Amino acid sequence: MATLTSLAPASASAPSRFPHAVLRRARRGMLAAGVAGLALLASPIVASAQTASAPILQGQVSLADLAERVMPAVVNIAAVTTSDTRGRTLPQIPQLGPDTPFGDLFEEFFNRRGQGQQGQGQGQAPQQRRSQSAGSGFVIDGSGLVVTNNHVIGDANEITVIFNSGLRLKAEVVGKDAKVDLAVLRVKHDKPLPAVKFGDSDKMRIGDPVMAIGNPFGLGGSVSSGIVSARNRDIQQGPYDTYIQTDAAINKGNSGGPLFNMAGEVIGINTAILSPTGGSVGIGFAVPSSLATTIVDQLRDFGETRRGWLGVRIQSVDDATAEALGLGTARGALVAGVDEKGPGKPAGLDVGDVITKFDGKEVKDSRDLPRIVAATPVGKDVPVTIMRKGKEEVKTVKLGRLEDGEKVQPASARTPAEPAKPAVTAALGLEFSPQTEELRKRYSIKEGVKGVVVTKVDPNSNAADKRVQVGELIVEIGQEAVNSPEDVTKRIDALKKEGKKSALLLVSNAQGEVRFVAVSMN
Q1: Which of 235, 311, 320, 422 falls 20 to 30 Å from 389 in CA-CA distance?
Q2: What is the full DSSP assignment across 53-101?
Q3: pTM
Q4: 467 & 508 share domain
Q5: Is 165 designated active site?
């Protein structure tokens, strides 16, 4: 696959945690990069060849047998997208001969589709723009099932799977999943096709050797090797990030290709790389097979994903929040919202609960919960262990389906803050006021949203560091409701007497969306 640059549909900017590098998705083969581009790629190789004089280490294991065995199942994928001049994807226009029944009517119909477009006159055929991308994939079933990345095929009108032997087969899309960036294709052939199997990525340890095969820069089947550099990497590309990191060379065009263990099993699907240059710098990422296999099975069987849904909104638990909640150590996923129509509501889950186990699996942090829930069968009765006000409880949830529960959350609208009038009281670097008609209009506070209004934030306070803003409302402090500024000071005094170092605030925006914020009381 390519660098995260080429792994991305076009180019994707890096997450903030990687300020000096570009995170890219490997999708486009760069074979037509030109002489200058090839020279840039070639010159470092020549230089290293001139300086490398050390002999191959004695006892170094050859990967030749392994590569020879699995390469026939690794494929190149060519995707062609045809769109009009406005970038809209067009269906393939049938080619009809002059003697075809109603052929003249079809011709007139397609000619009329071009009317009204820029640069086209009446009677002209619609102008089309073709874009091509190249990636990698691998066959998992001899009947013709192929796995690749979703971004490799995108909205392509035409997909061709090219085998190492030169065999070219047209492919149809069985199913796609944008959340984990996977796609399953199907090709048809009169003979069984070479295939590889998934292995268990959970058994891989940091330092274990791996081998990647793919279509870097459109060059065709290429092998590179390395080790597992890290596990469970979060590169902020989706809700289920748990990537395998490897130093095996992964470049543009490697997207969708397999990452093998030494038994020839696929333990990862190469998806992205971190690179400041656009080329491999030894930091590549693969979707682990433990996550991919369930999705691939669902796409194969149903043509879509069927993920479990708990119906809660969660946030992470930091040390300050753990101290405020009496958890001891930071762990679990803090429930910041419960969907009124979700499965968690009738099960008794509530805002402020900390989920520490789900279906017997430990929830170490908030990143774990979405993955565990998504992989749990829809409709299953699941035990959920929570911490509520310092006590452990177990709730039973009948899991729903995420795809049924997904809905677009409206963005919170807030009008620019005007200078606030003197607040009734101040604490924690904040000034508070009871809700008034004037404040509700000023900050566009939705009807029914409870709490006291934040009218001023000290920019040097811990509350400012935690991004508490003017116009937001404090609904609870220390998991008890506050309805007036006086309630705020009483709760803070009570928490100090209890020896708490932080006050856990339940903060609401003007639309009623809440989150927990632990603010230091020092």
Answers
A1: 311
A2: -PPPPTTPPP-HHHHHHHGGGEEEEEEEEEEETTS-B-PPPP---TTST
A3: 0.65
A4: yes
A5: no
Q: What is the mean pLDDT of the chain?
A: 78
Alpha helices in 359-467 (DSSP H): 368-374, 402-405, 437-442, 462-465
DSSP, residue by residue, 399-429: -EEHHHH--PPPPPP-PPPPPPPPPSEEETT
225, 229, 255, 366: which is the annotated catalytic residue? 255
Residues 103-126 pLDDT 10s: 444 445 445 544 444 444 455 555
Does residue 501 lie in a domain region? yes
Spot the catalytic one: 6, 133, 136, 151.
151
Q: Which of 302, 317, 349 is the last residue of a domain?
A: 302
Alpha-carbon gap, residue 375 to 211, rounded angstroms: 27
Domain range for residue 298?
4-28+197-302
For the question of residue 181 being annotated catalytic, the response is yes
How many structural domains comprise the chain? Answer: 3
461 is catalytic: no
Q: Which of 181, 241, 359, 368 is catalytic?
A: 181
Q: Write down which residue in 251, 272, 302 finishes a domain.
A: 302
